[in-house]
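Deliverable D5.2: sample structural annotation.
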Amino acid sequence: MRAQEDSTGHSQRPGASSPVATHQVALALALLLTFIAYCATLGFQFVYDDRGQILDNPWVRSWRFLPRYFTMHVWGVHNPDELGNYYRPLFLLWLRVNYLFFEQKSWGWHLSSLLLHVAVTFFVYLLARRILTDRVTAATAALLFGVHPLHIESVAWISGVTEPLMAVLLIPSFLCYLEAREAGGRSRGWTLASLLLCFLAMFAKETALVLPLLVFSYEWIYRGGEQATKVSEGPARRFRHSLRCMLPYLAVISLYLLARATALQGLSHTVTPLRFSTIVFTWPSLIWFYIKLLIWPSGLSAFYDTPYVTRPGMNNVVLPALAVASTAFIIWVWARKTPSAPSSESPGTRSRVVAFSSAWLVLPVLPLLNLTYLPLNDIAHDRYMYLPLVGFSIIAAVALHSLRMGRATLFGVPAVQVMAAGAVALGLVLSTVFQSLIWADELSLYSHAVQVAPNSRNVKINLANVACERGLYQAGIKLYKDVIERYPDYWLTYYDLGYTYYKLGNLEEADRCFRRVAEFNILSANGFLYLGLIRLKMGRVNEAIPYLRHAAEVAEEGSPGYHFALGIVLKVQGDLTGALNEFKEELKVEPEQKAAREQIVEIEKLLRNPGRLGSPAKAEAGGTKRGVVK
């Protein structure tokens, strides 16, 4: 039977009176402050990958693309023939539903992301309430989780919603598991609900694969229930029991992995080939980087300079490893220490809570340590800490709850605890409000990021894109050339520089850049499209046609503009029948396109009256104008 609690949330004897619940006020305040901390994001724009994921993504505009969500990776709309690791059908479904309601109104997208984060914060409270000794501490954990600045990337950036979307399913899945565990064999409904939510969470983001390990960890730590077992059991028996509890989740995972392997042509693919020694040597500095951000979340950015460590040394391996080990040792010693004052919290309870919270903190990070799955020099992001922050927040709340100074109380809670929690929460809220402002628009985002990560090629490319879009062409071109000088084989830089020259009317330089794109990436539909348009503007129509045909062939189905451009060139050449077929193909892609309909009507008249010939319409590129830098 669960312990009853008094107005402060502390456990009380059965039959005692239950005055006004302080923990309910604390929970309401936690949820309100979470909303307030991030409410400024409602005025933010689409930034970063939002362009490719939402604004230029035909998949989110129609339900007819729904089957693609389950058969391709999330970037398949732009790179259908490239192998990817991001299999997230539920995320694409979330984008589709949001587009259905909000289309390109950014405030609506930000509102749905914020409300989702508030919902996750509530589930963190429910989780903390189940494993802590009082509800006020659980509300404190929810508060620390909700307002922590490390969530800025996941809340202020629309495409970062994968983290809260996964968590809003994974945490309830674990809660259902706890309900099923308490009910024993009397309720299969909770078990089925837990397995279903686990399955859905994995389709939101692959990090949910850690849930079976969380179940194993909980059973290992809490074997025998909240009270100590009367009959001692050896490690082997405890291991078998814990493994048996996670087996149903492994069965669900096998179904997910089958779907993933089918869609991605494999479970995962190497993005950045690295030596195993480089990966291991990089771990200490990377883990210490995250620990520092958890404790002191300042200087946050969309990008960081986190270099690979190829040669171990004192500063890049030894000292970070010692810092990580020292942090773990301090937490271990504190967790086992007997409280210095009377408390409803026993040392055994604290050690179990901290041990399980540490598992929740560590396990989601483990997949990130395989650096070969991450883009080159892009191995650290704030959003990776979204799920680990659940465990960190519970540990921090227990630490605040353990403070004992004086006898003064506020709302039935030791005053020092209230003041300490209030001070920490206030600092986090202010930090979140001010640091989130860098996500307001792309110029703010990349201008800040280039200061934090001056060696990142993606930062410079994206900042150059924004500069050129705002008319600062010389500054943008200089940034492109800086990246090309350092990364001469990166095709996307040539693409964006070529597009800039194309807009400026410098066709010779644009042609030179897009020919480099064609050399490095034969599947770049837009690259070949612009090569065709450049030839058309130069008056070399016969040379334009092969490029435009190739662009139409490799373009992802549903992408507008390619058949239209080819139709225009064929019409200029005099191939009216070929042009008519291309315009009809364009209408299949975009049935509402007025220009294609007008061309069809005109050509059909011309075919009936060969003596007439109208002037061709202007050919424009379709799809994403600039490259998408992830």
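Annotation notes: The domain at 522-630 is CATH 1.25.40.10 (Serine Threonine Protein Phosphatase 5, Tetratricopeptide repeat). DSSP finds 26 helices and four strands in the chain.
The annotation will be released with the project's public dataset once the embargo ends.
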